[in-house]
Design goal:
The protein is of the alpha+beta class and 363 residues long. The chain is built from 15 helices and nine strands. The protein has two domains: 169 residues, no CATH class; 144 residues, Chitinase A, domain 3. A four-stranded antiparallel beta sheet has the order 6-3-8-7. Strands 2-1-9 form a three-stranded antiparallel beta sheet. Strands 4-5 form a two-stranded antiparallel ribbon. Strand 7 and strand 8 form a beta hairpin. Helix 1 packs parallel to helix 6 and helix 5 packs across helix 6. It starts with a helix and ends in a 14-residue tail after the last helix.
Length: 363
């Protein structure tokens, strides 16, 4: 009994120390929606885990967070993501307000599922006191966590009400066509590799590492010179009027060129090799240009957009998230209109740092 009481007291102390201003302090407000300091901390710990999983193999080390991202050396990774996370938590508040605006409600089944989920977590820790002690590092206890899970369900419900299969603002055919024409590029490329050789075994088969990637080695200086000379020769041929598409199969060192004989589709925002997208966007249909990347030289031919290419099975890989792109664009426009009206107490959240909050992979 003494041990359980101590656990509860420790958990309460941790809640106060981590949240900075106690469980009830309002961190963010939008209309009638309030997110407390503890809820803010919890969301921060969740986003931290997602960031680390994506960009640092799940490892939480200060050297990652303190790396600078600009030439002036003033913006660290922690600074950069802190602003993004703050905006995402503001968006949570907006979605919760939309849930109320639209007069939505959660079913009894959803509430029962949340109750069961929290109970299961408590059972895994052995007792509510032990669970609260573990949860305190993320700014919550069982009761606060239950409320957050209910908020999560409301956020999903509001989003589905807008953009789901029967959503009031679901994507229309006109929006698909407009987004496609405004944002996509259709290109073919000829790639000359000036950087590396792919390693093969004695039978000429690629050698792969444990992660499934083909092993490579850097080209020698002589090999680099020869590759650059090939690129220059190819450029002269193109300038002389040689057919771009005829040269792809003969000269391109990109194996994907054979897999996509009708070309590639990318958005103008795609993070592709070097300045390929930038060069492509500056071309007229039927024109070619030369782009560079750390891997070599990329000759690019801009092609006209095919009618409804986003519905073609052969281009599936380029449009597998097409619908989501449009929804995200609509969602962003709606959020931008409301973001200015979100109030945030900078003093309350000043003691809740992305650097210091543990990453939350558990809840």
């Amino acid at each position: 009994m003494i041990k359980k009481i101590l656990c509860v007291l420790c958990a309460a102390a941790l809640l106060l120390s981590f949240s900075g201003c106690g469980t009830g302090s309002a961190a963010i407000k939008y209309k009638n929606t309030v997110l407390t300091a503890n809820e803010y901390q919890f969301y921060l710990s969740r986003y931290k885990a997602q960031i680390l999983s994506t960009y640092n193999s799940g490892q939480d080390n200060r050297s990652f967070w303190t790396k600078t991202m600009d030439e002036e050396g003033t913006t660290t990774i922690a600074d950069f993501f802190s602003e993004i996370v703050k905006d995402n938590i503001k968006i949570n508040a907006i979605c919760l307000a939309l849930f109320d605006e639209y007069g939505l409600s959660l079913s009894n089944d959803v509430y029962a599922s949340i109750e069961s989920e929290v109970k299961q977590l408590i059972d895994e820790y052995g007792s509510r006191a032990e669970f609260n002690l573990a949860a305190a590092q993320f700014g919550v206890n069982a009761q606060i966590l239950k409320g957050i899970y209910e908020k999560d369900a409301k956020i999903k419900a509001a989003y589905a009400y807008l953009y789901g299969d029967n959503g009031i603002d679901k994507v229309t055919d006109d929006e698909r066509e407009s987004y496609y024409n405004d944002n996509f590029l259709h290109i073919k490329t000829i790639f000359i590799n000036t950087a590396y050789n792919i390693l093969t075994d004695e039978d000429g088969n690629y050698i792969f590492d444990d992660s499934g990637y083909a092993k490579t080695e850097a080209k020698t200086e002589e090999e680099i010179k020869n590759a650059k000379d090939r690129a220059d020769s190819l450029e002269e041929m193109l300038k002389s009027g040689s057919d771009f598409e005829d040269l792809i199969l003969t000269y391109s060192e990109d194996p994907a060129a054979a897999d996509y004989p009708d070309g590639f589709y990318f958005t103008k925002q795609t993070n592709y090799y070097g300045n390929v997208i930038e060069i492509s966007e500056g071309l007229e249909e039927g024109q070619w240009g030369r782009a560079e990347s750390e891997y070599g030289v990329h000759f690019v031919l801009r092609l006209p957009l095919e009618e409804k290419a986003y519905e073609e099975e052969k281009y599936y890989e380029f449009f597998d998230s097409f619908e989501d792109m449009i929804i995200n664009n609509k969602f962003d426009e709606m959020i931008d209109e409301r973001m200015k009206d979100v109030w945030i107490d900078e003093e309350v959240i000043s003691g809740i740092s992305l650097l210091d909050v543990p990453q939350n992979q558990e809840m």
